[in-house]
Sequence to fold (586 residues):
Amino acid sequence: MSNIPADLKYTRSHEWLKALPEGIVEIGISDHAQQSLGDLVFVELPEVGRSLAAGEACAVVESVKAASDIYAPVAATVVAINVQLAEAPELINQDPYGRGWIMRLKPTAQGAVSGLLSAHDYQALAAAG
Amino acid sequence: MPFIPHTDDDEREMLAAIGAPSIEALFDEIPANLRLQSLEGLPSGLSELEVMQLMAARARADGRALCFIGAGAYEHHIPAAVWSTITRGEFYSAYTPYQAEASQGTLQSIYEYQSMMAHLTGMQVSNASLYDGATAVAEACLMAVRANRRSSAARILLPRSLHPHYRAVTLAMALNQGLRFDTLPYMRDGGHMSLDSLAVHDGEDITALVIQQPNFFGVFEEVDALTDWAHARDTLVIAVVNPTSLALLKPPGEWGAKGADIVVGEGQPLGCPLSSGGPYFGFMTTRMQHVRQMPGRIVGATVDADGRPGFSLTLQAREQHIRRAKATSNICTNQGLLMMAGTLYLALMGAEGLARVAAASMARTAELVAALTAIPQVRRAFARPGFHEAVLTLERPVAPVLQALAQRGIQGGLDLADYYPELGAALLVCATETKSSADIDAYASALSEALRSARAA
Fold:
């Protein structure tokens, strides 16, 4: 059974979002996603300052058996990346909601990010496979 | 047991299970006008005996000409052990095997190949080989677009002095994938690219610069200055090199202050006989930082569950069978047999042997150029030094001269009229260690006579 913190929002492509001060959003992949991928061996991060369209593939998490894209849940600018992942991709396996965060985005448009799942809804999605 | 194990009954059962009336019906979705009705112009089959007789007759017609054509494929001596070894059943397959890790010997040979190519090019990692030199250049351009994250232009500078076939194949493979190409001129006096001609691109977003060393004319480029120019502008450098030449020249990994980023080329000079254009093999090496953007298979050294050393295919998450449409390439195998010939050739020659081949080829070409330019009206097109090829200009069209030489059993070089009309009557010639002084004298006297009789005609 994977850990799905109630205070985060989720996407159908298994990213989580955490609201930080000043409208910044932190992104990572869910505990369910890291379990499905297995041991991560590489994370490809976007350049800080890059502008992303909503739904754009902007990072890659690679395990010994698969490589999966991370999508921007909203049109945004990359304001920070977790550089520790370059040397220690296993942080995502060990602490997916904490030290395994992937990037921080500043959404370009005002207003709420739509189409996100609550922890309860994501629980149902993850349980369905 | 037949090689294809399913029987007509099996087929009927399978079709019944999926509710299809026939195998043909499975292709119904292809419109009739797109389907090939018959193979026009294909003769009916021949028996093995008839094929042998036909091929023997063709081989007699070709004769055993004295070949002074290079232009991307080079006649070198191949130690007999190379082909007697790789035609063993254990090696005689074109591909990396399925269940790759069950074939440790094959994987080890690929690992040895990768190690030698990385060393030869001065890079950190090699793939298991590509289809040929031309597609390797195209793959390198596509890879550079993925690897250069400071550039968003997908724009590549291709020298006009790059092998024209490499250019054509690169455009064919990459134009429809959104890449843009600009052509860099060569200097009419030296045959090389000049830094001055790059100045028009200052301030532009250029993803990669392709540098061929030696270039198609056999001329040496100013690789250090060109590499530094590119790196100062966040442009990656794709080196296209002749592997034989690397026994003498500075490896691309040491070009300029930082070295080239991707190195590719045609592996044919390493143990592969001239054969109507192929099969040959392409090679590609790069820096570790770009390894995940490199196409093709990679073999790594590892240990098994008991700690014993072994080999495995590695970084497969880049590849098509895992990464699907987002794979680095649709390349999903390697040019195994020819790569193996290259591996054995390098192992048998050693660093010293390869250097002797390179030095002898360079010396023979110098001797050839001296002998041919001693003929009135034959001149060198370019003043800059080169490796084992040179462009000569004649004062009359090249094609009839080459025909006259062919009558005397000499393949005199490549007529550049179609590729570089601006050079006039230009001929690209090559001599390797396989040519003796007597061969060169024979060519010089035949050329002298061909030009004399052409003048008289």
In short: The longest strand of chain A covers residues 57-63.
